Amino acid sequence: MPSGSADFFTTRLDNLVAWARKNSLWPLPFGTACCAIEYMSIVSSHYDLARFGAEVVRFSPRQADLLIVAGTVVDKLAPVLRKIYDQMPEPKWVISMGVCASSGGFYRAYHVVQGIDEIVPVDVYVPGCPPTPEELMYGILSLQESIQSGRKSRDDRSARYAATLPALPSP
Ligand code: SF4
Question: SS in 3 state form for 11-52?
Fold first, then answer.
């Protein structure tokens, strides 16, 4: 730039806010089974999720905006999951990690939730048993793309369904 001229760029406020949100996700891992072990690796040094601004893991729902459900959710745990989701401030997002969380997996049984979208709205489903760290990272990057674009990534069908759920009893 010639001396004396100013460096500046223009943008829209909502683009700036989306950029900041996308690059400062605070995940709360709801780990119930083997998928949670795989989750641990992406916040460790080898995969280093910090490169994408999503490594500040929080175990208080009030400090988190990304719920990552990693593992099998049994019926008895469903109200706990819903309560945690309700306690997270908006805007918030949900990733369903692995087939157990997404569909019950091979636990086609009376005591297992057949997909967490029966309990909470899901934004991104990551398939696999367990998903590899790369697959989970791809899911997080896809979510970040949606956040930046302003596109609504949440599964409308599951959001509508979750909204009609009666209040769940306390665990
Ligand atoms: S999807 Fe596979 S690895 Fe993940 S919790 Fe279920 S059985 Fe375990």
Answer: CCHHHHHHHHHHCCCCEEEEECCCHHHHHHHHCCCCCCHHHH
- 30 alpha carbon – ligand 1 mean position (Å): 13
What's the 8 CA to ligand 1 centre distance in angstroms?
49
pLDDT one-digit tens code per residue, 68-89:
999 999 999 999 999 999 899 9
Cβ(105) – ligand 1 distance below 6 Å: yes
The residues, ordered by sequence, that sit 6+ positions from 72 with a Cβ below 8 Å of its Cβ are 32, 33, 100, 101, 104, 105, 107, 112
CA–centroid distance, residue 148 to ligand 1 (Å): 30
Percent of the chain with pLDDT over 70: 85
Q: What is the pLDDT of residues 92-115, one digit of tens each?
A: 999 999 999 999 999 999 999 999
User: In sequence order, which ranges of the chain are alpha helices (DSSP H)?
Assistant: 13-22, 35-42, 78-87, 98-103, 133-149, 156-163
Per-residue pLDDT tens digits for 125-156: 999 999 999 999 999 999 999 999 876 656 55
